Each structure stands twice: as C-alpha cells, then as structure tokens.
Amino acid sequence: MITFRRYQYKDNLFEGDFLLVRDFLLELNNPTFSFGWWDYQKTCPSFHADDLNKFGLWFEGEQLVALACAEEDLGTGILIAKNGCQTLIGEMIEYAKENLHDNGKFSLMIPDSDKVYQTAAANAGFFPTQERDTDSIIQIDSKNLQYTLPEGFKIISMADDYNPVQFDRIMRRGFSGDMEERALSSDERKAIDRQFMRPLMNLDLQIAVVAPDESWAAFCGMWQTAESKTAFIEPVVTDPAYQKMGLGKAAVYEALSRCGKLGASSAVVFSSLQFYFRIGFHPNATSTWWKKSE
Predict the structure, then answer these.
(1) CB-CB contact of 287 with 133 (8 Å)
(2) Do 124 and 168 belong to one domain?
(3) pLDDT digit string, tens, across residues 185-240
(4) Among residues 28, 39, 73, 78, which one has the least CA distance to residue 288?
(5) Which of 32, 81, 210, 211 is a plausible cystine mate for 217, CB 3.0–4.6 Å?
(6) Which residues contact 39 (CB under 8 A, 6 or more apart)?
(7) Same domain, yes or no, for 209 and 123?
(8) pLDDT in tens, 85-109
(9) What is the mean pLDDT of residues 45-55?
(10) Domain for residue 271, yes or no?
(11) How far apart are CA 106 and CA 138, in angstroms?
C-alpha cells in the first residue's frame, strides 16, 4: 500500500528527511538527479531550508518510492519515482502544482526520455517549452587529467584552508560580477558553513586555485561518496580577472583526479556550457521545462 506524507524538517537539516532522500537517490543511481545534486542544491547558501516542508514523499511500507521537490527554488518541480511506481506521477504532478508553486508560477523539469511522465504532464494541462537543461558526463581517466598552472598559482582544497570569505568573494565575482570587497555577515557565514561544515562532506574535494596575491582565482566543488561511482560537480567558477588562463580546467581536473582515487569512475555536471565539452565532457541527457497551459 502506498502512503504519503510531507518532508519533515525542523531546525537541523540532518535531523529530518535529508538522509532518507539522499539514500533514495543513491539507490536510483540516476546521473541527472544524483545524491550530489541533492547534497549541493539543498545545502547551498541561497537555498531556503524552510521550503523543505513543502516537499512530498510517497512510501511503499517503510520504503521511500517517490519524491516531489523543487529543483532549486519554489516555482520549479522535480518528480522522481522508482520503476514500478510511475502510476503515482499524476498524483505527484497535482501535489507539486498545488504546493511547490511560487505565487502561482510553476513549471516541471521532465526528462526527454520519460514518455510516461510527459504523457501525465500533458494530461494535467502542461506543455513543453523551449527551455531545456542538459547534464553532461565525463569518464574519469587520470592520464587525461593533466594540467599546468601559470607561475605563482597553486592548488589547495578547503581542507587545507577553509575560507568562507574567499568562497563568497569568488562566487559573487564569478557569477554576478559583484567586485565589491566586503566582510561576511554572521548569517552569510552560517549559510556557507551549512554547506561545507556538515556530515558527509569531504573538504579535500572542494578545490581552489589560489592567485599570487592569495585570493581565490577559480573554484570547483565536487560531491563524491563511496556508495556511487558517479560524482557530481557544482559549482565551477573563475574570477573574471583570471579567465582564459586554464584555471577552471585545472580546478575541475584536480577535483576529478581526487575523486578517481576514491573510487569514482565518472562525474556529471548540470550544464551544457562549451567549457565542459572542451575539457572532455559529453552530453548525457536532456530535460525540458513544461508549464501549465493558460
């Protein structure tokens, strides 16, 4: 018998259903929505943890068999069901539409290979848009992960130097062009600590390229576990002042090399940027955003 309940979250991320969902994704072993995507996305500083209580969980007995959650923020929906439980998709779509919207705005990310999901979404009044996401994959082979750093630059990990100020700085500079030099507030520091200073985190895989002035010039986050052969990459960022120097490639290759030594045979990134294709990644799967018909 299938039963339903909402995701349980109070104050501590790891005392609720976080690990239950993580184990569910590890069992499914789907590169598109892997344990690493969950680990990164639901702990990143910008994520609103209170939104977790709106996620939906379906069980067969005590076993989790289906999940309805936001991709990043409310207004986006990801629905994942085990094989044999696809009959739940229609119910999951209705739940997500009612509980995961953002002021009425809502769209579903549906894998292009999942015809059952597509049919259910169409029956519920959704239609595919031109918005599409691609995840890309690379096979980890140490002999293909060679890089050279410019003179004066070096590689470190967060295990060598846990530096939230430099992490915040390069994220702002690389992703939003915010070049302001400023201190972190206590809340900003706590948000970064939530992601990195927590259980199941290997800081040795969080790689920074350090410039001669000791600022971080590039960064690659890597998520790996012994229970999976596929690691997850997020984020990858280069300071605009140091672009086109091979620093992003160096950070990614160093992280991949370390993952390979820990048993990973491949790594996936939720991106189709040409940067990844130039350094050895290939498209793995595409998903299309579906929206409700007006």
Answers:
(1) yes
(2) no
(3) 999 999 999 999 999 999 999 999 999 999 999 999 999 999 999 999 999 999 99
(4) 78
(5) 211
(6) 22, 200, 223, 232
(7) no
(8) 989 999 999 999 999 999 999 999 9
(9) 93
(10) no
(11) 32
Is 68 among the domain residues?
yes
Q: How confident is the model over 274-287, as pLDDT tens digits?
A: 999 999 999 999 99
Residue type at 197 in one-letter notation: M
CATH number at residue 170: 3.40.630.30
Same domain, 248 and 129: no
Place of tokens 């929505």: 33
Dihedral angle computed from the Cα positions of residues 88, 89, 94 and 99, in that order, rounded to the nearest 10 degrees: 90
Let me know if 110 is exposed, middle or buried by CB neighbors in 10 A (0-12, 13-18, 19+): buried
